[in-house]
Every structure is written in structure tokens, then in C-alpha cells.
Amino acid sequence: MALLIGETLRRLRTEKGLSQKQLADRLHVERGSVTNWEAGRRVPSIDMLYKIAEALGVDTTALMAAAGERSEIPSVLLLDDDPITLDGALPVLRELMPNANVVGFTKSLEALAFFRENPVALVFLDIELGRSSGLELCRQMLELRPHTNVIFLTAFPEYSLDAWSVGASGFLLKPFDAEEVRRELSRLRYPVMGLL
Asked: Does one domain contain both 65 and 135?
């Protein structure tokens, strides 16, 4: 819930053209408070939610409803440059996560564009993506949304240490099976309601 309210708060603030500092000044709080709310590290009190709604010119109910709307169907992204691997993995993920919007890409730029436009909760990411690096793409994604879970996919177990260094939630060796995916989903760094 903290992350959903944070994403909604960030969206509403940017729609109003306010910086975090400007919103903090209107609320008479430190800029760090707004940063923590938007990052999902803290949740504003009920009293503060009323003040935030007033400062942003929105109804408190609308603020909470907007957060709830985004939580209904989590998006899961799979990026693997091998179409055969992608075709084999997508049905497994869709069967395991029937309540999620599971999408697959073979091109990094298309995946990153989808990620930027959608509230992706979980990314299955190949480490070797042709000329691109899955590790670098992970860094970019986590800069945009630090609370996204990233599970790396590879055929090379020696990459596992590199995967952990960029903030991965998990690691799967290809080809993977449903039981291995279930195990990784049970250990997500940021659990996702409605995923399973």
C-alpha cells in the first residue's frame, strides 16, 4: 500500500508541476518526508493525507482511490532476446500468475518503454541481451522505480554475483520450471499483492 500511495502522490505532484520541495513547503514538512512517501518507505498519516489532498487540489477519497486503481492488476515484464526462450517462458509465467498482466519482449528499448509507461511490479530479465546488458538495464529500471522486483535469467550461474550487486530480488537459471519460479516469487524483496 505504501508504494501505491507513493506512486500516486508522485504522479499527482508532477501533474501539478510541483517539485518535492514545493510540496513539502506547502505541507510544512521536510523535503525528505515527501521523498520517503513517494518511494514507499513511509506512509503519510490520515491527517497528512487530508493536507496532501488539499495542497494538490484533489479529494482525499480520489487520492486513495487512485492508489487502489493501480493495485488491481500488477504488470510483470519478461525480457529475453531469444524468441524461443520467450515463447517457452511466457505461458509458464501466465499460468503461475493468472492475476497479473504478463508481457514479453525481445528488445531492450521496447521493454524499457513499456516499463516507463506502466506500473511494473516484477521484471524477469535476461543478463545477456545481445549487445545490451541486462545488468545495466536493471540499474536504469531501478533508478526509475526502486521498488521493482527484478529476477535475473541466465544460462551462466557465474553471473549470479553480478546480479545481486545491482539490486536483484532473485536469480533463475534457464531453462526454468514452474517450481523454481514459485520459489523466487515467495522471496520477492517487495511482495506484490494480487500477483498470485
From this structure: no
pLDDT digits (tens, 9 = 90+) for 158-196: 766 666 677 788 889 888 899 999 999 988 888 887 676
CATH of the domain at 51: 1.10.260.40
Q: Which structural domain range is residue 29 located in?
A: 2-71
Name the 3-class secondary structure at 75: strand
Crossing angle for the helix pair 46-56 and 2-15, nearest 10 degrees? 20
Whole-model pTM: value is: 0.63
Q: How far is CA 79 from CA 89, 144, 169, 186, 195, in A?
A: 10, 17, 16, 21, 18
How far is it, in rounded angstroms, from Cα 165 to Cα 117?
Answer: 26
Domains of the chain: total: 2
